[in-house]
Amino acid sequence: MSNGYAWPVRDQDPGYPTYLFDRLRREGMQTLEGAKAAGAYSVLEKALKELEPSQVTGMVKDSGLRGRGGAGFPTGLKWTFMPKFDDPRPRLMAVNADESEPGTCKDRVLIRQDPHLLLEGILLACYAMQCRGAYIFIRGEYVEEARVLFKAIEEGYRGRLIGKNILGSEFSCDIHLIRGAGAYICGEETALMEASEGKRGHPRPKPPFPAAAGLWGYPTTVNNIETLCNVPAIVANGPDWYRKMGTEASPGNVLAGISGHVKTPGIFEVPLGIPIRELIYSEKFGGGILGDRKLKAFLPGGSSSGFLPPSFLDTPLTHDDLKNTGSMLGTASVIVIDESASIIRAARVIADFYHDESCGQCSQCREGTGWLAHILKRIEQGRGKPDDLNTLLDACANMKGKTICVLSDAAAWPVELALKHFREEFEEALNKSSSSFSSPEDSGLQGALAGMGPAREPAREPAREPAREQSNAEGGES
Question: Is pTM, for the whole model, over 0.85?
């Protein structure tokens, strides 16, 4: 089917149960009429008539659904962190549609092509937690997606599916749409809340956690788009049905994006646990490496998940299996790099991105991301120094676990894995007095790391030399 995306959604029977993309195969899913004809809001109606809020939470908790935004935290358990229902404060939900992880664009497909699936998931979650309102924070660059979603919300209000006394019940819930301004950091839940309140998108120190004091100081739960789109299927079919897909620790399906040097890039609904080899090489998915070249590396979950060599191809696509490799599932967006590309350049491109997107609030992130980008640029240009690799690792060590949010960690992980698995390439570069590690093939790497924009000058050189050693005490937050 045609959908106008650079990354097409496959319109073929995958040979296993699906539920996220099923309605995308039908016409008119952007409209309330078309969505209701396909079953939209029937689960919400059933829940409002037959289920108590705690029962909905229990179903999601028993299903084992884990967040699809990157952290993989159990969704139902997260909902239970909200205060008891006798707490008089209004409860709110923040919906994270600020999809900005390089290599990732799965949420935009759900928003643009089946917005009512998302709205039904939001309303079910709000009913379960008795939230009075939901605030969707959508990435500023998602202009068409925001238009589609706003129209769907308007239709929902007209159809008495949103607002006061939904479907004639005692449950009332408003849904608001807030557009971001293009900052990656606003994908972090507390920065998202700051931006939603009209402030600068700076992450907040925790505690207090959002469930205690979130949007405007009220109890708030933050969930990702894909996570919420799983909820209607769970409530409709039950947790036992859901657990038949995926694995015991990572149940259900996931939207896996495959980009980079593959023959058929796309977004695919697959069961968690599928081997990464199958995602890259199967004709149903990636179709193999462009030009039948050899695979050099892949990033299994977006740019922050880091570089893994081909020896990890048989790793199942699950939270725990990828964690055991030193990487992570992240957004399940697999970026493929073939033998013609430079790991040094790829690492530098990623480092540039995180340096640009650091909010600057914490010194370890503000200074560390700049140094990673600067040193990698120097190595790439053939001007590396003998101790550069140790300096990179030292900088990474001082960037992790010491900041308000994990952007600093996310910048360090790809560099550490690149040096762990491809150190010979870095050492070869240092042994050459001058060389260029850019090749005509590498131009496609910029596109593979989607969201970084066109090639440009790397980050500016920091003003001073970094400390060779830094204690934990010195590494505290600014």
Answer: yes
